[in-house]
Amino acid sequence: MPTLEGSMSLLTVDEITGGYGDMEVLHEVSVELDTGEIVTVIGPNGAGKSTLMKTIFGLLQPTGGEIRFDGKSITGLAPDKIVRLGMAYVPQVENVFPSLTAQENLEMGAFILSHNYSDRIDDIYELFPLLKARRRQRVGKMSGGERQMVAMGRALMLNPKLILLDEPSAALAPNLAAMIFDRIAAINQTGVAILIVEQNAKESLKLSDRGYVLAGGRNRFEDTGKNLLMNKEIGELYLGG
Amino acid sequence: MSRLPQLIVYGIISGSIISLGGIGVSLTYSILGFSNFAHGDIMALGAYICFGVFVLFTGLGIGNTPIGPLSFGFSFVLSFVSALALTALATVVIDRILFKRLRKAGSIILMMASIGLALGLRNILQFFWGPQPHYYIEKIQVASVIPGLGIRIKPDQIFIIITTVALVVLVHCFLQYTKMGKAMRASADNIALARVTGINTDRVILWTWVIGGALAATAGILTGIENKFITPELGWQMLLSVFAAVILGGLGNPYGAILGGMIIGLSEEVSTAFISTGYKPAVAFAIMIIMLLVKPTGLLGRRK
Q1: CB distance B194–A108 less than 8 Å?
Q2: Which of residues 154-213 of B touch A (CB under 8 A)?
């Protein structure tokens, strides 16, 4: 079904099909996200959540469908071009430069800028005060939670309109995961739209405006975050009861 | 054992040259993702470019009156510097012609291509200059004795050590304090992440060849200064020591290459106190194998 031209969505994923080479993982998946929204895509392992993120960000080429961002089609565009349009991506693993210090990781996030970006680094330190204290420490020696902060900070350096977060709380202790979600809400408060994919999705849905359930590479449900949390069937199937 | 201080001096000289070669191998491995077996022959290329420019300058009448106690003069120093730039340029051109189109084919294909390049370069040098040695320096330099320690060292050898230290400090400052240097370290960590972060990885690859090529040329030229002559085989003969150094220090870490280079250079030279000089390459080889068995990630290496 074609969506209306000139709609206000920041990101429109329109019936994309794709995956890795011949292996089709996504089957006509559609996701929509408005300016300033937090949207979570949940689903079991292997549902195609990470594949969806990589396809949106241009790391994988879709075989069908269209992706529009900020009014332009970005289908088939390379990641380094998409970054310049105001989208940032935080992969689930290997999302930091371990031999660089925290500050150097942030500087790398601003690589394409030619002007002074020290103000921006100060903004990031305000968001993650812990990083300021550890700015000269190598990220390879940091804990999982600190690395996640560095990764998110790096993605924020270019002041993006949208951040894609791939399982930001994976492998984190519950208190750290709560802290990360608290920071995600704070980032959203500054006007940045956020698309999250999560396997353990309760925390994420709590702060989401809307959510999608993906299973077997297809859209299954779509509703507000609250409604998805209260939906018994979804609770049993996808939120661990 | 009284020869030990002297052997340590020789070890530092040969370790300097190995380290300079190793930095390039290490950077190429971590950023471009393959073991460049042509690196030794790039050293030889640099040494021959220096020789060619030197002959040209001498023909143009640029004087080569020895500077101070050194056995070479202004013309040679100028040739040295020109050779660094020209070798760096040559490696960038080689990358565009050969490696760039193979980048997507994977590390094994790139490594095989580098073996082809190694053979090609060596034979081109032999074609133009022949297999016989060409002399950088004709006259014999007398070594000075450092009193008290019983160490004999030539001014040219002090030049080799000072040049190495200066370049290592320069590379260190570049990697630590410049935006491009940091981007190179970031790309060495994870080039895919560098790309999604917006780092211009093509520019990073260009700089990798420029630095690797210039340091390789330096290693080749310094070998020529130490031996007084060059042959087309000069780099190939050093390749084992260079790879042993890089593996010992930790593949992909340029600082590891410097440390590994010094250890290999010292071990090779000090070993001659106990075993025949002919076994020097075996010493490097033995250290490499032991390191691969005990700690394959090397002294300063990280698990990827």
Answers
A1: yes
A2: 179, 182-183, 185-186, 188-190, 192-200
pTM value is: 0.89
**Which residues of chain B are within 8 Å of residue A81 when distances are taken between CB atoms?**
none
ipTM of the prediction: 0.88
From B189, B196, B302, residue closest to A57, measured CB to CB: B196
- Choose among A84, A99, A158: nearest Cβ to B185: A99
Residues 6 or more apart whose CB falls under 8 angstroms from that of B221 comprise B46, B47, B50, B80, B83
**What phi and psi, each to the nearest 5 degrees, are found at residue A82?**
-65, -40
Contact A13, A58 (CB under 8 A): no
Contact A83/B198, CB-based, under 8 Å?
yes
Smallest Cα–Cα separation from B254: which of B223, B211, B220, B197?
B211
Q: How far is CA A183 from CA A128, A145, A190, in A?
A: 8, 12, 11
Task: List Cβ neighbours of B83 (8 Å cut-off, separation of 6 or more).
Answer: B46, B47, B49, B50, B53, B217, B221
Of A84, A89, A108, Cβ closest to residue B199: A108
pLDDT digits (tens, 9 = 90+) for B239-276: 999 999 999 999 888 999 999 999 999 999 999 999 99
Q: How do residues B190-208 score in pLDDT, each as one tens digit?
A: 999 999 999 999 999 999 9
Judge whether B97 is closer than 8 Å to chain A, CB to CB: no
B-chain CB neighbours of A59 within 8 Å are 196
Q: Check CB contact of A59 with chain B, cutoff 8 Å.
A: yes
Tell me the pLDDT tens digit for each residue of A7-32: 568 999 999 999 998 899 999 999 99
State the CATH architecture for A1-86+161-235.
3-Layer(aba) Sandwich (3.40)
Q: Could you read off the pLDDT of A87-117 as tens digits, one per residue?
A: 999 999 999 999 999 999 999 999 998 888 8
Structural tokens at position B168: 């290592």
Which of B39, B33, B27 is closest to B242 using CA atoms? Answer: B39
Question: Using an 8 Å Cβ cutoff, are A143 and A114 in contact?
Answer: no
Could you state, in order of their start, the residue ranges of all structural domains in chain B?
Answer: 4-294
Mutate to test the interface with B, among A85, A87, A108 (most CBs of B within 10 A): A108
Q: Using DSSP bridges, classify how beta strands A38-42 and A218-224 pair: parallel, antiparallel or unpaired.
A: unpaired
Q: Do A140 and B302 touch (CB under 8 A)?
A: yes
DSSP string covering A166-232: ESTTTT--HHHHHHHHHHHHHHHHTT-EEEEEESS-HHHHHT-SEEEEEETTEEEEEEEHHHHHH-H
Amino acid occupying residue A6: G
Cβ contacts of residue B121 below 8 Å, gap of 6+?
B38, B41, B42, B44, B45
A111·B199 Cβ contact <8 A: yes
Is some CB atom of chain B closer than 8 A to the CB atom of A113? no
Which residues in chain A are classed under CATH 3.40.50.300? Answer: 1-86+161-235
Architecture of domain B4-294: Orthogonal Bundle (1.10)
B193 with A95: Cβ contact below 8 A: yes
B169 token code pair: 């400090």
